[in-house]
Design a protein that fits this description.
By secondary structure, the protein is mainly α. The chain has helices at residues 28-53, 57-64, 67-100, 106-112, 115-118, 121-131, 139-142, 153-178, 181-189, 194-222, 228-231, 242-251, 255-288, and strands spanning 2-4, 7-9. The N and C termini lie far apart (55 Å).
């Protein structure tokens, strides 16, 4: 230490780092996070898969590919995918209107989007079954044309639309709010019309959040039980979904069959989510370019 006037300056002072982390990146928050995920997600998933594999490949395949199970997979995955894709379009439109337009009752409409989050699924199923029945407010409009919604596969589709819509809207809404309108104005000043501005300027950055919302909605629709079990007739080869089939097997004390179908549902869902995640990565690269 040396003194210049009345100011003391410290020089060449070495402070030992006694608490330096020997494992960079490993900290208490990291340990808590990994431990929580292992206990909550990894262990139950491994337990389900391990339990189902104890039957042997032949028995597992026989149960997983039974006629009733295949029909349930078809209803579950195809209907959930259709609901996710349609909500991808309608959710984008709703988010766009909520962000870009001002109109009376906007806050009420914005809050109404979250109703599927707050409403118990059994209550949602009861409401949908009442509204879309042949004598319901909406169902009676289609009844003269011979279109039955409640207690059919179409009712399952409506229930999946209902519970998956908020995922797309709430995923896309913050992205639209952060988009700068100056970019659109610049495109207009360069001679682009509104359609060209949307497809070449606005839409590319929206691809990743749209795909994320569709993936979240799709995942939520696959696992839906409470609303579907009420609005559907739950008849095999008609509108029976895999989660309801699992519950039916449990009621019959067929724990092995329930485990195998649950494991199959999990594996197929993971594969489809990986595909959607790949599309998300592709969308981000497309946006960067």
């Amino acid at each position: 230490m040396r003194t210049i006037g009345k100011v003391k300056i410290m020089a060449n002072v070495s402070i030992p780092l006694t608490n330096r982390n020997k494992f960079p990146g490993v900290s208490i928050p990291w340990i808590v996070t990994i431990s929580y995920l292992i206990v909550l997600l990894v262990i139950p998933t491994l337990a389900l898969i391990t339990k189902s594999l104890t039957l042997g490949p032949a028995e597992f395949w026989r149960i997983a590919t039974g006629p009733v199970a295949l029909s349930a997979y078809n209803v579950t995955f195809l209907t959930a995918l259709a609901a996710g894709l349609i909500n991808g379009v309608m959710g984008t439109l709703i988010a766009w209107v909520l962000v870009r337009y001002q109109f009376p009752g906007k806050k009420i409409v914005d809050a109404a989007v979250d109703i599927p989050f707050a409403l118990p699924t059994s209550v949602a199923g009861l409401v949908l079954a009442t509204v879309y029945s042949e004598k319901g407010w909406i169902g009676q409009l289609f009844a003269p044309a011979g279109i039955k919604i409640a207690f059919t596969r179409l009712g399952v589709f409506v229930a999946m639309l209902f519970i998956s819509l908020p995922f797309i809207v709430r995923t896309l809404q913050p992205v639209l709010q952060e988009m700068e309108t100056e970019v659109e104005e610049a495109a207009w000043s360069l001679g682009a019309n509104e359609l060209q501005t949307f497809w070449k300027v606005i839409f590319p950055p929206l691809i990743p959040p749209i795909l994320t919302g569709v993936a979240l909605g799709f995942s939520r629709a696959i696992g839906e039980y409470g609303s579907v079990v009420i609005i559907a007739s739950n008849i095999p080869f008609k509108d029976l979904i895999a989660p309801v089939l699992i519950f039916q097997r449990l009621e019959e004390y067929d724990y092995t069959g329930a485990t195998v179908i649950g494991a199959t549902l999990l594996l197929v869902s993971l594969v489809m989510l990986l595909v959607i995640n790949f599309l998300q990565q592709w969308g981000r690269r497309y946006t960067v370019k």
